Amino acid sequence: MLTFEVRDTGIGIRSGDLQRIFEPFWQVEQRSTRRVGGSGLGLTVSRRTAQLLGGDVQVQSTPGQGSIFTLRVPDGSRRRDTAPAAGPPEAPEGPEAPEGPRLAEEGTAGGAR
Fold first, then answer.
1. Domain of 45, in residue numbers
2. Which of 29, 31, 54, 90 is 20 to 30 Å from the Cα of 10, by its Cα?
3. What is the distance in angstroms between the CA of the first residue and the CA of the last residue of the chain?
4. What are the C-alpha distances in Å from 27 to residues 43, 66, 83, 98?
């Protein structure tokens, strides 16, 4: 496992709120006059991504002193018992083929001329 720790000296988190911070849109400061910004999605996305990779994000915190966030993910050194997946499926050709993404040309707004 690879382990990454991030320590901060922020406002800290009460023990009763430690698991709630991973809920979508939940924030420690719920008031409209909060001192801290953000949408409340960062930790949710981080934990779900780590779990999809076979790991997790955990937190330890002391109110008024700060927090330690720990990310653990597999390091990929273990061999898998399954065969590697086949390559991507063949894309359809001809009139039924989906149109690919369009990129804006330099000097145009949204690619329009």
1. 2-27+39-73
2. 54
3. 51
4. 10, 15, 42, 41
